[in-house]
């Protein structure tokens, strides 16, 4: 009889739990999500989730990291920087305007504010890959070398985040386009596309 | 014998408590601040603070509202929009880089994220007056009419907030100046000053 392989079995459970977390986030949203529901969907024990992750927010974060790690975060490059940024900014604004996605991000932002280790993880594993993808697109678009791309990329996402977090204005497609126009004036009027 | 005036006495206590809160925030910072210390400094009872405000975060918020309401939030107008924005942005970046002020803002941001009523109060009483002051300066600086000033003002503060909250980069004077240069390119190259 072959010896069982606990490492492989653990990896299968881990995958099942992360997949279940993502599916339930889509179906019910963060607030309604429970560790019990994740365990039931994944065919795992609640205790396994608590032992491996510690609780709901950590397993959700890992499920989201996993999406970024396995997904394609690269921006389209049609040769038209303004059009490509519009797509990305409209999509980002729509995500923040969606009550279900917004609740997840809000909950994770609270965790991030309260926990330095969590803040570092969110920044390096979730945020940085997405910001870097936009930086790559700006670089390919011929943004002049004297523009600091780290500052430029936050010129795009900072205002959206500010408006969402502090509820200072509507998150609409019209807003997205006005923002892109200002950003393009800042960096792109000298870019080649 | 004249009847005592409880309304006036209450107003004196309220002022003493808010003044004590601000003084202690400056001296010890948010994390170390306790309702007991505020009460002792103000010569009031802890129960009064709990009864009127409910707890530490609410009395701190009221103390900060009070600063904005009584203080002068107008921007300098030297006729040089870039120079005036630089002053404001450098000061804002320095505030966010200060560990003590940063801790207060961080704690209030957590409250804001968790409580819709608090979020509305913070926005309308604390944030809006400051954003409006910058809008007024932009308007006086001759920013073209087709620039949406609500979007423009968040183009200034959104990136700072993003960088501070998500710890994506250093909060330095050099950063402040680079940000102002991008913002000026977005809105100001067509402004008159």
UniProtKB/TrEMBL annotation, chains A, B:
Keywords: DNA-binding, Transcription, Transcription regulation
Record carries keyword Transcription regulation: yes
Keyword rRNA-binding part of the UniProt annotation: no
Segments forming domain HTH tetR-type: 11-71
DNA-binding region, residue intervals: 34-53
Listed InterPro entries: Homeodomain-like_sf, HTH-type_TetR-like_transc_reg, HTH_TetR, Tet_transcr_reg_TetR-rel_C_sf, TetR_C
The protein's name in its UniProt record: AcrR family transcriptional regulator
Organism: Catenuloplanes nepalensis
């Amino acid at each position: 009889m072959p010896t069982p392989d606990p490492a492989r079995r653990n990896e299968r459970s881990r995958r099942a739990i992360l997949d279940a977390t993502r599916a339930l986030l889509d179906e019910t949203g963060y607030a309604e999500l429970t560790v019990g529901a994740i365990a039931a969907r994944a065919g795992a024990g609640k205790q396994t989730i608590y032992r491996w992750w510690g609780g709901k927010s950590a397993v959700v974060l890992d499920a989201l990291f996993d999406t970024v790690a396995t997904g394609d975060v690269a921006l389209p490059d049609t040769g038209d920087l303004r059009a490509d940024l519009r797509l990305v900014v409209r999509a980002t604004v729509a995500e923040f305007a969606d009550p279900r996605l917004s609740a997840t991000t809000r909950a994770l932002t609270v965790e991030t504010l309260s926990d330095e280790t969590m803040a570092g993880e969110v920044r390096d594993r979730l945020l940085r890959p997405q910001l870097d993808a936009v930086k790559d697109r700006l670089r390919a678009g011929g943004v002049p070398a004297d523009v600091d791309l780290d500052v430029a990329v936050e010129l795009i996402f900072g205002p959206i985040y500010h408006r969402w977090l502090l509820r200072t204005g509507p998150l609409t497609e019209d807003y997205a386009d006005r923002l892109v126009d200002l950003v393009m004036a800042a960096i792109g009027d000298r870019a080649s596309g």
